[in-house]
Amino acid sequence: MNCEGEELIEVMKLLYQRGLITVLSGNASLKCGEFFLITPSGVPKHKIKDLTRVNLKTLEWEGPKPSIEYRMHAQIYLNTDFQSVVHAHNPLTVALADVYAEDQFNELVSKYVETRYAISKVGVVERIDAGSLELAEAVGRKFSEGSDVVVMKGHGVIAGGRNPFDALNKVEAMEYLALVETARCGTSVRRQEVVYY
Ligand SMILES: [Zn+2]
């Protein structure tokens, strides 16, 4: 496993260029044995140079101040075998999460090639404060139940993968799904009025 972290820096640039994060939002990490590397807090995402090293057990960190969501990344590594985690603020997915329930997301995932082969299971969590331990634990529970993508209402998407690009692909596949579904139905329809195949 490459533990240098260059791919995390590249992933953050791609997320910003695609409009899936704003310049100071989102984060990505890479597991390296008993530690993980994570993008820092407060640094413009297209200009990241240094990463933070966090101890998975003690959560002590070295380097620049880590993303406020470092506990969420730790919860995912502690509950799964994923090697990388990517978190973005996908606008259309966030919009869809206000009207679609978890089972509806999973039904949609199975209907499109882009998502069917990329995503195993989507979890949805309610609005919980960003950066809180409560959110980290709620997301960790969804991952422990088999989700590889979790949508946080009013916030964004977090995905686990074999490497940074696998996790990025899941984040992008979710936004693809939301774009297709928004084009097909719009998000202004009431849930019970959405027609499925
Ligand atoms: Zn966020």
Topology:
Elements: H1 6-17, E1 27-32, E2 35-38, E3 52-55, E4 61-62, H2 70-79, E5 84-88, H3 91-97, H4 102-109, H5 113-116, E6 122-125, H6 133-144, E7 149-152, E8 156-161, H7 164-185
Parallel strand pairs: 6-7
Antiparallel strand pairs: 1-2, 1-5, 2-3, 3-4, 5-8, 7-8
The chain binds zinc ion.
Zinc ion (ZN) binds at residues 25, 87, 89, 130, 155-156.
Report on the structure:
With 197 residues, the protein is of the alpha+beta class. The chain has one domain: Class II aldolase/adducin N-terminal domain (L-fuculose-1-phosphate Aldolase, 3-Layer(aba) Sandwich), CATH 3.40.225. Helix content is 38%, strand content 18%. The chain has seven helices and eight strands. It has helices at 6-17, 70-79, 91-97, 102-109, 113-116, 133-144, 164-185; strands spanning 27-32, 35-38, 52-55, 61-62, 84-88, 122-125, 149-152, 156-161. Strands 4-3-2-1-5-8-7-6 form an eight-stranded mixed beta sheet, sandwiched between helices. The longest helix has 22 residues, at 164-185. The model has no long low-confidence stretch (mean pLDDT 93). It binds zinc ion. Zinc ion binds at residues 25, 87, 89, 130, 155-156.
